[in-house]
Design brief:
This protein is mostly helical. It has six helices and three strands; from the N terminus they run ααβααββαα.
């Protein structure tokens, strides 16, 4: 098999990779997914309590976006004013990705956090 020479100009990001990071890279989405991975099903107020710095308006927006992406599902209960959120199968399959982020942050973020504390 013949090797094909490539240059930096030949490189381009995979559209699926870009799409994934447009979802996971959006502020608060990672935290929402993380909570739902560990807390399974959450009512809005409980989820808001876990993602404290996110406003209710933005949390509502992010949940709708994650639902549209098939990552979160919204369960309503007829006759009750109860709505719960949980991860779909697609959302649960992000567990190894989140574990890898935890491993990376455990290795590298202590020094960065210490540096931030010195600056502020």
């Amino acid at each position: 098999m013949e090797k094909v020479a490539t240059t930096e100009d030949d490189f381009s990001l995979c559209p699926r990779f870009e799409k994934t990071f447009s979802i996971l890279g959006k502020k608060w989405n990672g935290m929402i997914i993380e909570v739902l991975l560990h807390e399974k099903t959450q009512r809005f107020k409980d989820l808001a309590g876990h993602v404290e710095k996110c406003s209710d308006r933005v949390l509502c927006e992010r949940l709708k976006e994650l639902e549209a992406e098939g990552i979160v599902e919204r369960q309503t209960y007829p006759g009750e004013s109860r709505i719960e959120y949980s991860l779909t199968q697609r959302g649960h399959e992000l567990a190894p990705v989140m574990a890898a982020v935890h491993a990376w942050s455990d290795k590298w973020c202590d020094a960065a956090l210490d540096q931030e504390r010195k600056i502020s």
